[in-house]
Amino acid sequence: MNSQISDSKLVKFYYSTWKLGPGDFCKEYNDDVVSFSKFLNGIYDSERSRENLKKFWEKHQTSRLGDQSDDDDDEFSNTFGDNNLNSQLSPIRNIQSPPSANRGLGAGAPSAGQTTATTGAGGGGGKDNKRVRNLLKTYYGAGIGENEPTVNDPMNIDGPSFNLNTYFENIIKSSTLPQLIAKDNEMVSEIRTLDGDMKTLVYDNYTKFINATDIIKKMKTNVENMEEGMELLSKNMDLITTCSEKINSTLSVRRDRIDQLSGLQKLLKKLQFLTALPSRLNHCLEMQAFNQAVNYYNSNSGILKQYNHIPSFQNIQTECDEIMKNMKVKLYERLSSVSTPKSDVVESAEILMNLLEPVEKVRSQYLQSRKLQTLDILSSLEKREVNSNNITDYISDLNKCFLSEYEYNTSSFKSLFINRFDGSDSNRERKQSSLQLDDFSKELFNRYLAIAKVKLSSFKDPEQKIKALEIIFSDVSKLSNSDLTSFDKINDIINSSVHDQISYYFENLQTTIKNQIYNMNNILNTKKEEALEGNFLLELSESTSKAIIQDISLLFKNLKPFFLPTETSFLSRHYGTIFTKIQVKLQQFFLFLVNIHFVEYLDIIATTPNKEQFSPRFLLVLTSICLYIENKGIGHVVQLMNEFISTVKQGINSQDMNILSFNAPDLCKRIRETGQTILTSFARLKSQKTEKILKKGLESVPNWLVLKEPRDVRPVIDILLEELSGVSKEVSKLLPTTSQTLNTHASRAQGHHRTSSSNSNSNTPTDIRKNTSNTNLSLFDKKVDLYSQVDFNVNSVMIGIIKLTLKSFMECLRLKTFGTNGYHQIQIDLQYLRMILNDMFGGNNSFEYIIQDCESTITERCLDPIPLAKSITQKICETKFQKRNQPNDNE
Amino acid sequence: MFNTNQSTIPTNVYGLSLKTRALAHISAEADTNRFLVGTEALREDNEIALLEAKEGEGIKFISMFSHPKEIQSITSCPFDQSLFFTVYNSGSEYKSSCWKISDTEKDSIEELFELKGHSGLIKPILCDPSGSSDYIVSLDDTNIRLWSKIDGSSKDSPTVIKTFGNLSKLTVGCLNPNISNQLATANHTNIKGWDFRNAKETFSIDNAHSEHIRDIDFNPNKPYYLLSAGDDCKLKFWDTRQTKDPVKTFVGHNHWIWSAKYNKYHDQLVITSSSDNTVKLWNVYSISSANTTNTLSKEEEEEQQKQQSPNEQQPQQQKQKKKNKRNEDQLIKTYEEHEDSVYNISWSSSNFLFSSLSYDGRFVVNNVPKEYSDILTYI
Question: CB-CB: which of A606, A609, A817 is closest to B91?
Answer without folding.
Answer: A817
